[in-house]
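Troubleshooting log. The previous run stalled partway through. Resubmitting the same two chains, unchanged.
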Amino acid sequence: MLRTFFHVLLLAVLAVGTARAELDPGVGPAVDPAVVEALGSSDFSTRVAAIEALATGGEAAREVVAAIEGGRFGTLDGRAVIVRDGAVLAVGSGEVLAAGPGEVSILRLNNRLRRAVATARAGILLEAGEDAERLAAARTLVNNASEALLPLFERVIEDEPVDAIRELVLQAAARVYLASDDPARRVLAVSMLGASADPAVITLLRPFVSRADDGSWIEADLAVRDAAADSIRQIERRVALADTVGMVFSGLSLGSILLLAALGLAITFGVMGVINMAHGELLMVGAYATFVVQGLFRTHFPEFFDWYVVAAIPVAFLVAAIVGVIMERSVLRYLYGRPLESLLATWGISLILIQAARVSFGPQNLELTNPSWMSGSVEVMAGLSLPWNRIIILGFSVFVLVLIWLMMQRTRLGMFVRAVTQNRPMAGCVGVPTARVDTLAFAIGAGVAGLGGLALSQIANVGPAMGQGYIVDSFMVVVLGGVGQLAGAVWAAFGLGIFSKLLEGWSGAVIAKILVLVFIIMFIQKRPQGIFALKGRAVD
Amino acid sequence: MRTPFTIRFLRSMPRAGWMALTLFALFAWVWVPVAHLALPSDHALYLSSYWITLLGKILCFMVVAVAMDLIWGYTGILSLGHGLFFALGGYAFGMYLMRQIGRDGNYGAEIPDFMVFLGWTELPWYWFGSSSFIWAVFLAMALPGAVAFVFGWFAFRSRIKGVYFSIITQALTFAAMLLFFRNETGFGGNDGFTDFRRILGYAITAPETRVVLFALSAGLLMLCLVLGRYLVTSRFGRVLAAIRDAESRVMFIGYNPLHYKLFIWTMSAMLCGLAGALYVPQVGIINPSEMSPANSIEIAVWVAVGGRGTLIGAVIGAGAVNLAKTWFTVALPDYWPFVLGFLFIAVTLFMPNGIVGVVRSIAIRLRRGNRDGRTMEDGRDGVGAGAPQAPVGQAAGIPAGGTGDATTVASSAASVSGGDEVSGAVGVHDTATVPRGPGRSNEADDPERNEATIVRAFADKATKGAGA
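Second attempt completed without errors. Output:
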């Protein structure tokens, strides 16, 4: 109601003002007159083509496109017009027509028109926007290319400074050429497309090497067929390479998570012979600590928000280590050498920790934001971009591994830990304070789990039960890698990671999990000594 | 001379045990039907269908606990996969129940609703025979049995023991749960089977059906107890206990633990499957969350709470924990995980022999007067009968009845074959009539008991050898 009133008011004001604004350069005399005429045509297809052609119109066509999108574009007596502020302007000349907006038959958008408008908008942006906008525009154009856009493509290919955009526009142009009547042009396009690494291009090229239902080639020209077959082979090779590299990477990424989850477990199991079923919950504690640090940064130091993850590293480690020490001092101390009992008791601890998290933070998943330097991805090769957060976590796990290794090999505590792992009574006899070593080793193991939780918080859901999903897998790593051996844990973690991703690609996630389990059982059949043999001569 | 089977069988349980069983049978087969069907619903002794279902459910859990006790308490193998066998039995029988819905489903189709929903037009091949009751019952036993057999064969053959075995069974359960969560697996995915209508043509919610299912569960439990009791008091049971206490030594004297472990493992799984098959019609639903690792560990806690290595302990534990759970999840739902968690810790730290152990130690304290000074000759006779004489007295450093570091004890026990610290063992005079000693941890933490079982196994082997 108010809006109508406002419009009427505007109309009155403009009616006075328009007398002076006979010619409006904004509506663009620069737009090609043929296009302007086609825009006013009564034939739908002609109009669609004309709208697409607006893409080449540059800045001048911008308002027309905006008008079409805004439902302010229409025809009046066979002329394309737009309605602006209640006045009717002819497209092309920009002259103000002496007609009310009500007389204009507005163009209603349907899907086909929307596509055409998107193309036009992208075309305009391609020449005028920011680099990022232009890249996005080029992506749109690749899928919506049409003959009408060729002039624009030529201009861009001629003097585009950004390679990525030029590349995309070339692709777009090639697609237009594919539909061309001239076999030479088609050969050109087909060969050009061979440089792509996009599997979608294969679908595009497939008709050029297939036969129709009646047995004749869809593509009549032999040269085009050969070029297409060649291009398809090239793309397939590239796609396969990208897939393999991507798969290995996701395997490594999974392996790095498994490693962070299993490192602490390998230490505690190796040193103390206790099974810590609450290890997954120590991951959860680390993730929740990260969440709390994030909250503190958000409220207190928003300007350093990007670095909350770094600040959370010591916090996650310490909080998880403290929880670990409490567990060790209050329960596990009494269960050394009784793995099955420790399994049950620590499961009880894990129930308590989960429920404590649920009661204090709520049962829902927590919201954690990646800092800006961890979001986004990097394109390492054509058709393969790797997310930054996974790359950083891979590096982080290697960093933690090195730290642990140095701790174990170069410090006095590490030597004690190794001694107790190998022979507890003898270590005690020569004066190693075994009880204190136990506590410290457990604290470190728990702290590493906390770091694992921090890493997980950046790539996976954080919730009270998040640890449950990892406990089985990390035990598999420890079992496969051998007890108390860091090197074994590393091999097993990355091996299992890559192996399960390989299987996943082939059979789906669930079947892959089952197959991995079967594989582990089989592996144990073959190498029981290497993995399960207890150290020394004590057998039972 | 061999004792006749009937005598052996009757002697496997003390008279009080048979009496208790008879009382229980009267309760389950006479009183419960009368209280539910014959008494008016406002009568003070009337048993509502809620209680029948609840008790029936707990009876099924008790069967699972007994099965778990056979494999854990007696053989020392902690399985974290019994939830899987239970659920497999439930699913096998659930298939039959789904077929019994017939055309009464929401879509009125011949196949179960969830298949219609998936766009399937016919039953997958593994639903073959699912319309037959006999086949369903067979499958409820055979399927968990087969899974257990294959898995156990591989696991035991490569001598996977202790926590490794536990963890691998847990992984197995976990993988199976993921598998059953998938819709394409053909078992209803997330929702599983539910909305059952009838069983053998009778309405599943009818009071009579409930009573019959309850009576069957009670029957299965009694069968389990009698069978379990017979097994654990037989020579077979003694080998199992010896495997638990010192597997290497059992092998050294010529037994192959594989067969024993595999048999009891498979049997335990089959009992679980049957319990699952009875559980599903009573609670009216089976879904993959039954296979979650947490459920399997909870089964272990029932047994630990009641007392490992005693069948009655398993029954008591399953009953106590589940009644507590029922009460808590209604009254204080937020606190049940805390209670359960503390229960896990408290039982392992303070009550290694569970409720039964506590009761026993009180009873022993009360009777201490009469027992002082009595020694056990049985064990040493056993050594004399067949086994090479061991350097006696080396085990004297181990305190009798001590609960020290288990592996230390086990390894020192391994270095001494036989020993004379058998005196003072509780109730090992005559395994045929007297209850076995208090259930101990599978880690052989009790030298006296340890020696007694070994010695027995020695003697058995010797007689067997002499007979052949």
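Takeaways: Confidence is low (pLDDT under 50) at residues 8-26, 529-540 of chain A. Chain A touches chain B through 46 residues (CB under 8 Å).
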